[in-house]
Design goal:
Blueprint lengths: L1 H9 L3 H42 L5 H11 L5 H17 L4 H30 L4 H15 L1 H20 L4 H7 L2
Helix pairs in contact: 1-2, 2-3, 2-5, 2-7, 3-4, 4-5, 5-6, 6-7, 7-8
Length: 180
C-alpha cells in the first residue's frame, strides 16, 4: 500500500513512475543484501568466538558465542561489553588465572575488530556497491549525529542515499562519492 501511494504521489508520467518503482525495488534489494551480510558476519564472529572459548576451555562457549554475535550488532560498544563479560567469566572459571581472562577478552576484541572493521566494511561495500571509505564515514557521521541509533541506522541510510542519488538528476556527485 505504501509503495502504491508513494508512486501515485511522486510521479505524474509513466516514465517517472517506472523510475520510482525501480528505485524502491533497488532500495529493497540493497537492504536485503545488507541484512544478509549482517547475518554472515555475525555468524562468522560467533563461530570464531566459540572456537576461541573452546580453546580456552570456557564453559558455555556456545551461549557466549551467541551473545557475542547478538551484541556485535551494536558497533563498538557491543564488542566492548562482550570482551568485559568474557574476561570476567574466564577469570572466574579459571580460578583467577589472568592469562586466560586476558586471552578471552583480548581475543574477542581482536576477532570483533577484524570482522567488524575489515570483513563487515568490505562486505557492506561489495553488497551495497558502496565505497568502503563512504561506509566508514557514514558510520562516523551518523554516530556523531545520533549516537547509538545512528550507529544502527547509518548503513541502511547510506544505502538508501546511494540508490536515490543514482536515480535523481543533480545528485551525480553524491552517487559517485558513495559508489564503488
Amino acid at each position: 500500500m505504501f509503495k502504491r501511494k508513494f508512486i501515485k504521489m511522486v510521479g505524474t508520467t509513466i516514465s517517472q513512475k517506472k523510475i520510482n518503482v525501480h528505485m524502491l525495488d533497488e532500495i529493497n534489494r540493497s537492504i536485503q543484501r545488507y541484512m544478509l551480510m549482517l547475518l554472515i558476519t555475525n555468524a562468522s564472529l560467533g563461530l570464531c568466538i566459540y572456537l576461541l572459548l573452546k580453546y580456552l576451555s570456557i564453559n558455555n562457549a556456545g551461549t557466549w558465542a551467541l551473545v557475542a554475535a547478538a551484541l556485535h550488532l551494536v558497533p563498538y560498544f557491543g564488542s566492548l561489553v562482550t570482551a568485559v563479560c568474557l574476561g570476567v567469566a574466564a577469570f572466574m572459571q579459571s580460578g583467577g588465572a589472568l592469562p586466560v581472562a586476558a586471552g578471552a577478552a583480548g581475543g574477542s576484541l581482536l576477532i570483533a575488530t577484524l570482522i567488524g572493521n575489515g570483513m563487515t566494511t568490505w562486505m557492506t561495500g561489495r553488497m551495497a556497491r558502496m565505497n568502503a571509505v563512504a561506509v566508514f564515514v557514514s558510520l562516523l557521521l551518523f554516530t556523531w549525529l545520533w549516537g547509538t541509533w545512528g550507529m544502527l541506522l547509518a548503513i541502511p541510510l547510506a544505502v538508501i542515499a546511494k540508490v536515490v542519488a543514482d536515480h535523481v538528476e543533480g545528485l551525480e556527485v553524491l552517487a559517485e562519492f558513495l559508489g564503488e
